Amino acid sequence: MTTLAHFQLLASMLFAVGLFGAVTRRNAIVVLLSIEIMFNAANLSLVAFWRYGPHPEQLSGVVFAIFGITIAAAEAAVGLALVIVIYRYYKSIEVDKMRSLKG
Amino acid sequence: MNPSYIQLLLELLPQIALVVTAFALLAVDFALLRQRDPTPRFRTLGRITVFGLAVAGAMLFFQLGQVQAGGAFVGPLRTVVLDPLTVFFQIVIVVVTIITVFISMAYPFTTHVSEYYAVLIFGALGMNFLIASEELIAIFVSLELLSVCLYILTAFHKGMLRSAEGGLKYFVFGALSSAFMLFGLAWTYGLTGDTTLAGIGQAATELAKHGLHGNGAMLGVALLFTLVGFGFKIAAAPFHQWAPDAYEGSPTPATAFIATGSKIASFFILVKVLFIGFAGAHGSAAWGGFNSGWIAVAATLAAITLVVGNTAAIVQRNVKRLLAYSAIAHAGYILTGLVAANALGAASVFFYIIVYAFTNLGAFGVVAAISARVGGDDFKDFTGIYKRAPGLTFLMLLFILSLAGVPPLGGFFGKFYLFTAALSADPHNLGLFWLVALGIAMSAVSLYYYLVLLKTMYVSDPVAETSAATDRIAAPPFLNFALLFSLAVVLWTGIAPQQLLGWIERFL
User: Fold this and answer.
1) Which residues contact A12 (CB under 8 A, 6 or more apart)?
2) What is the 8-class DSSP label of residue B135?
3) Is B185 in the A-facing interface, judged by CB distances under 8 Å?
4) For residue A103, is pLDDT > 50?
5) What are phi and psi for residue B135, nearest 5 degrees?
6) CB of A30 within 8 Å of any CB in chain B?
7) Which is the most buried residue in B135, B257, B274, B351, by most CB within 10 A?
8) Is the minimum CB–CB distance between B324 and chain A shorter than 8 Å?
9) Residues B472, B461: Cα–Cα separation, whole Å
10) pLDDT tens digits for range B258-275
């Protein structure tokens, strides 16, 4: 029997995996990927809360998840565009090579 | 009970006017102006933008009279709540955007003119909805609309490496914080079973009664994640690393918009989320009486932010970077007022963000006007600039003194009200005295770096490589108007502060 706790445990683990990737990886695309995993962990959590919550007939949880997916897509579009701009200058997308701003 | 959608559309006419302006700009630019030089295009399209924003502002002004007389408008599911306070702040946002457009017209930096103005307007639209919403989904969506527009604006200076790099750093930190916030909001929704702030408030009060056990503890985690998300948006330490890079890398008008408009909207919604949504889970930050809750978290953030922002600003040698660290420090002062957690605290925060926004708009306006001519915004470019731009430098002096909190300028009363609110939260024990004392000590530190900047501009002799040019730098008339308007607000809030504070308290 899968319970709410199982889903939330999975969501929290996914979030932790994503966060670990986002702070340790140097490749900008992998960082974006990790952030996507974090977003999807939150969406999974939302849907699970909605399904097991006291009012599954009210759709706010699942609507929230749909908006979350849409926003993650919009952010990915802007993020990849920024990565392309950076690549034109550095011929590389390693985040620790970006050193023109510091202090 | 739900008001009809026709009525919703009528109430949202000012925002619809903004969207229409944005698309009209794109159409005019693509159809008529594509082959012209960027400088006249910046001016022509800027005029259209200002016209559209002014129409939206006039509609909002009319709406302010209506909601004051006829009571607040509440949209379906409280996604849009228009009461006098929200409409007043929407007007402030529109005015801030108009001034940003005036600054942009003096700083033609890109050939994609209409896209730039359109993204600016969509950012203002996100701020408008962010201020008006009292429901988690609407808050999240409008916050993301605002953030995505700001990432694009930061990276808009396509010929400059620093702009792209600042944009990517801003984006990575911002997206990370959005993920934190979404996770926190998901847990808030799951534990309280509601997405409206009022409903969350009731459920959270119920949960917080049982202390840190079971669901109460999980609510604490949700609150912490949400606050991490907001901490990034308002650039509170230790989530501030994006701010200096984004401020320095952005084209200066975009920096002005990020530093002012997004701060107003983010702080406004933060106050709403904490005061309505998490009202029951407040805790305490009194010296020796720390108790888990949002006040304890916010007070800790405030203390770290005050110290980090003010000490890191001392070593900066770039004007925009210095103003970025000063913005971080100011987030610390505002959080100090926030932890008062009463009506006076909210009023002082609202007063301060208005004063702060117009002061910074003025300061960035001067930086844009000067750096458009000298070609940089490092200290060495600004050395001895007094001889070339006496008027602009004098305006900068007033704005910087207001940021430092010197009476009789608006910044002084802003800080005064924030600290008073923090002390009045617990008038018998003065539990927050430690935080206020830290704030006052850090204001003294801030005076040092502000005066170093002023000394550079006024007293120091120009360095050899830049002294060749001796021609005068004067701002174009529309920028002068914008700067003088900002100055008028700073002086007005300094000489008659009780007037603005009275308005805010009446709207609350």
Assistant:
1) A41, A45
2) B
3) yes
4) no
5) -145, 140
6) no
7) B257
8) no
9) 16
10) 999 999 999 999 999 999
Domain residue spans in chain A?
Answer: 4-93
Q: Are B298 and B227 contacting, i.e. CB atoms less than 8 angstroms apart?
A: yes
Cβ of B144 within 8 Å of Cβ of A85? The answer is no
Residue B146 neighbours by CB under 8 Å, 6+ apart = B123, B126, B127, B130, B262, B265
Q: Where are the domains of chain B?
A: 1-278, 282-508
For residue B180, give the chain A residue with the closest CA: A38
Q: Using the beta-carbon criterion (under 8 Å), do A79 and B317 form an inter-chain contact? A: no
Which residue type is seen at A49?
F
Query: CA B162 to CA B151: how far, in whole Å?
Result: 13
Q: How far is A47 from chain B (nearest CA, A)?
A: 9
Condensed to tens digits (0 to 9), the pLDDT of residues B425-483 reads: 877 777 789 999 999 999 999 999 999 999 999 888 776 555 556 778 888 889 999 99
Q: How far is B163 from chain A (nearest CA, A)?
A: 10
Query: What is the sign of the dihedral through the CA atoms of B219, B221, B222 and B226?
Result: positive
- How far from chain centre, in Å, is Cα B162? 22
Beta-carbon separation of B136 and A64 below 8 A: yes
The pTM score is 0.94
Under an 8 A CB cutoff, do A28 and B316 touch?
A: no
Q: What is the pLDDT of residues B79-116, one digit of tens each?
A: 888 999 999 999 999 999 999 999 999 888 888 899 99
Q: What is the model's pLDDT at position B109?
A: 86
- Residues A40-94 have pLDDT tens digits of 999 999 999 999 988 888 888 999 999 999 999 999 999 999 999 989 888 888 8
Chain A residue numbers with beta carbons less than 8 Å from the beta carbon of B176 are 19, 22, 35, 38
User: Buried b / exposed e across B314-341, counting CB within 10 Å, b at 16+?
Assistant: eebebbbbbbbbbbbbbbbbbbbbbbbb
Residues B348/B421, Cβ–Cβ less than 8 Å: yes
**What is the spatial distance between Cα B358 and Cα B485, in angstroms, rounded to a whole number?**
9
Q: What is the ipTM of this complex?
A: 0.96
- Residue B144 contacts A where some CB pair is shorter than 8 Å: yes
Secondary structure (DSSP) of B91-130:
HHHHHHHHHHHHHHHT----S-HHHHHHHHHHHHHHHHHH
Q: Does A57 touch chain B (CB under 8 A)?
A: no
Per DSSP, the three-state class of B293 is: coil
Q: Two tokens at B83? A: 């009461």
Provide the CATH topology of domain A4-93: Helix Hairpins (1.10.287)
